[in-house]
Amino acid sequence: QTNDILLSVRDLNVFYGGIQALHGISLDIRQGEIISIIGANGAGKSTLLKTIAGDKEIGSGSIEFDGRPLPGRIHQFSQQGICLVPEGRKIFVNLTVLENLQVGAYAQKSKAVIAQRVEEVFDLFPRLKERAKQMSGTLSGGEQQMLAVGRALMAAPKLMMLDEPSLGLAPIIIDEMFEKFRQINKMHGTTMLIVEQNAQLALETADTGYILNLGKIQLKGPGSELLDDPYIQEAYLGFK
Ligand code: ATP
């Protein structure tokens, strides 16, 4: 069945000047699925997310989201229904926690809906509620990551993309964060696309995993199968 495909990428090529970062990428993401993409530095993971989010121009190929083709040019705002939590979080450090959340709902006119979503984010991350009036720049790294995820949720995206959400976080916080991703996916049916260096956790969490290498998809399969794959164990999971 094709009508439960939320995102469809076909033969995608993306360039930085004369350098080709993505080579003929094709992938399909079903509604409600959790996808993880793992790969070494420079594999093209961030480029793929940016292109889907409309922050980077399509060289050739196509991206279809929710049955509609995405335009190839760069957008000022993220594509409707798609939210990217970028690497390094990029929250507004001079705004409070609450203000950051409100900015995330910029497209929503109803104050009641915004207030309702803030409550949902606070239920998911009680720490943010305690710190609602605190300047975001003074939050810990883990709290800033919670805020970045919360801000994305404020837009009620159909597709939530996370670029290296574990970066710089303590192991216990990383586990908590991935548990929250599963919770978001369950509660809201949000489709999640997670790019991660932490291959073990990323593949444990994913329904489907992709290995990206030098701008190409090298392998694809159920997360649990990839975890058992001897090549992946050696190349990405540090097994000998
Ligand atoms: P990392 O884990 O290090 O962030 P990545 O898998 O996300 O790596 P990308 O950041 O997508 O990889 O980079 C893919 C390729 O594109 C790399 O070779 C990189 O040098 C190149 N690239 C990325 N951004 C630019 C840019 N703004 N200008 C020129 N080349 C770029």
TrEMBL record:
It comes from the Bacteria. GO terms for molecular function: ATP binding; ATP hydrolysis activity; branched-chain amino acid transmembrane transporter activity. GO terms for biological process: L-amino acid transport. Residues 7-239 form the ABC transporter domain. Keywords: Amino-acid transport, ATP-binding, Nucleotide-binding, Transport. Signal peptide: none annotated. The keyword Nucleotide-binding applies. The keyword NAD does not apply. InterPro entries: AAA+_ATPase, ABC_transporter-like_ATP-bd, ABC_transporter-like_CS, BCAA_Transport_ATP-bd_LivF, P-loop_NTPase. PANTHER family: HIGH-AFFINITY BRANCHED-CHAIN AMINO ACID TRANSPORT ATP-BINDING PROTEIN LIVF. Belongs to the ABC transporter superfamily. This is Branched-chain amino acid transport system ATP-binding protein.
